[in-house]
UniProtKB/TrEMBL annotation:
This is UDP-4-amino-4, 6-dideoxy-N-acetyl-beta-L-altrosami ne transaminase. SUPFAM superfamilies: PLP-dependent transferases. It holds the Pfam family DegT_DnrJ_EryC1. Belongs to the DegT/DnrJ/EryC1 family. It comes from Hymenobacter fastidiosus.
Amino acid sequence: MSPIPYGRQHITAADIAAVTETLQSDFLTQGPKVAEFEQKFAAYIGARYAVAVANGTAALHLCALALGVQPGQRVITSPITFAASANCVLYCGGEVHFADIDPATALIDLQQVRQLLERHPRGYFHGLIPVDFAGLPVNLEEARQLADEFGLWLIEDSCHSPGGSFTDSQGREQRCGSGQLAELAIFSFHPVKHIATGEGGMITTNSEALYQDLLKLRTHGITKDPAQMQRHDGGWYMEMQELGYNYRMPDMLCALGISQLERAEAGLARRRQLAARYDAAFAPLPSVRPLAGAAGHAYHLYVIQVPDRKGLYDFLREKQIFAQVHYIPVPAMPYYQQLGWQPGTFPRAEAYYAHCLSIPMFPTLTDEQQDYVVACIQEFIRQQ
Ligand SMILES: *Cc1c(COP(=O)(O)O)cnc(C)c1O
């Protein structure tokens, strides 16, 4: 059996052809594939606008900038996420706060968020960054109600959930990143994500104003649109109107993204099939506790909790199965501890971290490979 990672990209001949074609075209950076990827991605997600950027972290940074995060502002996110969900606030000089998770899902617990909000005067917090952890969509309808009640904006970190959805209280399907409930949503195209371009990211929104601002921020704060300029000296003229960055996604990677997007639904279906097979395999094993599932789950990860996580991790490595831990709680990172976060502040996140393990989950994982993973876990559990 060849080594089995917890996640991996899938590159087809069509992907390679799409990239090669772009390499032979006139555009290496901002060519026609950027707008085409943005339009197709927006259509897939169900949002009005999409802005392609260098990676998911850049997407978060631009969202925080576009929403005006600045020194003195406070933003809440989940302790169980990739550090970038929190770091984007720090990039803008803001302060990050956390609310503990729901132990059944490992998603930020909106009741905990409410309690945190109620302990402070209205206006103390400015935004909330919920994360669709592992691919399970946050109930954004509830998050929106909370945000409206306390005057917050929302950035949905949808890196794990392209194609995911939840059913709202009216029975409507709410797709992750569709811009219906959160001002902005972000995605990443890192190799382990659903759509893999190496580096790459996307922001989706239904707000024309945020969209226009993001386009500018992505490219140094410069506009070349005469309608937006204060004066017009000639054909060469452009204006830098705010402090932006070079967070562009190149044309060849957008071509790869377009090609990958065509397989997104098939990949999602396979992820859900694999999750159902794991669910069935672990049902008779009380010491293997998978995180709660749901109909619209996008299964970026399949996470189990076991009593001896380190033991299982090491055992699987010996069997050439490379499981991973998602995540070390962000406030437990030395950098965040230095900012004042004390161990013990988020007991549920810490308890989850002590036992969680992400086992192989990617569309090209075969039934045979998955059966081997399950057999190895069963073998480890029997030895306990
Ligand atoms: C991958 C990821 C990011 C960052 O994306 P990059 O493209 O690696 O910068 C942010 N948030 C979450 C939840 C992620 O999984």
